Amino acid sequence: xxxxxxxxxxxxxxxxxxxxxxxxxxxxxxxxxxxxxxxxxxxxxxxxxxxxxxxxxxxxxxxxxxxxxxxxxxxxxxxxxxxxxxxxxxxxxxxxxxxxxxxxxxxxxxxxxxxxxxxxxxxxxxxxxxxxxxxxxxxxxxxxxxxxxxxxxxxxxxxxxxxxxxxxxxxxxxxxxxxxxxxxxxxxxxxxxxxxxxxxxxxxxxxxxxxxxxxxxxxxxxxxxxxxxxxxxxxxxxxxxxxxxxxxxxxxxxxxxxxxxxxxxxxxxxxxxxxxxxxxxxxxxxxxxxxxxxxxxxxxxxxxxxxxxxxxxxxxxxxxxxxxxxxxxxxxxxxxxxxxxxxxxxxxxxxxxxxxxxxxxxxxxxxxxxxxxxxxxxxxxxxxxxxxxxxxxxxx
Length: 396
Ligand SMILES: [Zn+2]
Description:
Layout: E1 5-8, H1 27-38, E2 47-50, H2 57-60, H3 66-76, H4 99-118, E3 124-127, H5 148-160, E4 165-169, H6 176-181, E5 188-195, E6 219-224, H7 230-248, E7 252-256, H8 274-290, E8 297-300, H9 307-322, H10 332-342, H11 363-382, H12 391-394
Parallel strand pairs: 1-2, 1-3, 3-8, 4-5, 4-7, 5-6, 7-8
Helix pairs in contact: 1-9, 1-10, 4-5, 7-8, 8-9
Bound molecules: zinc ion (ZN).
The site of zinc ion has 6 residues, from loops.
């Protein structure tokens, strides 16, 4: 029997529009949405479409400060305003009229998914616009205003009393806002695989950042050297993740499945193809099914700035989780839509061809650098008693 899946979407998601020339613009949402639509996914009998309501002030304040929430509201009504000490009005996070309203709708999407899953209406859910992981409690950063993932985690803890939530973030940028939010707590295991912050925003997320106090060992950052390819990525995933996942035995899983690690993304520098994302989706669903969560998985779209890649990566991730069979060829209706609406020439094949690592410049150096990052993580973890039963961390 097919699992019941929630698909969270609002036509008003497009109001989260940071500007025509800003990478975070509605094209990157509409192109994936239309692909899911043209493939008939949205009409499948086991897919439930949910339209979120905007999150309330008290929900937003499960994570954000009162002062920051007030500034978000006030600046949304003031043309040309800014408060750079709160990150508002920067190039990355411009002030725009729907800033507060559209951001609270994003939070509403994550909360809708969390509730529907936790109440048993669906087993998994996917909110295309979500996983805005760079927002801190009192400031906007990296295209993110309200941190829907951190709020959803606090909501699950408060409303349902969950004590072990696993947050896994595979966006090309480190999940700094979410990992920082729970850095001193062991009630959230935060895992982030991302391009090394030596080379890309946000400049944190090194492998020696493993949490502090009660949270020591519960933040796992694994940086990846630019150029990292599918097989290498998967090998690192398998070395680090399954053991700590099984040991932690989470009650609920949130996956920020950013698409910007794809080799055609315009901001990231990794060499991942759709096949790595399909693998990730399958493994994350398997691990979630085997744990106390019993399959409860909330997917939040995250980043990704080449609409064609974003669409195919999210499809691959979703198919990995749900078992949906991806056809080889792009549906013609989608190809036409992207060309007509946005002048985008999409790929005619939905899956990428494999990339031969030997053709990647400096592939030996990339492999060595990643081994070093992993070594630092292992050494840091060995200093703590957490994950002492995980062989992969104990071996030199
Ligand atoms: Zn990103």
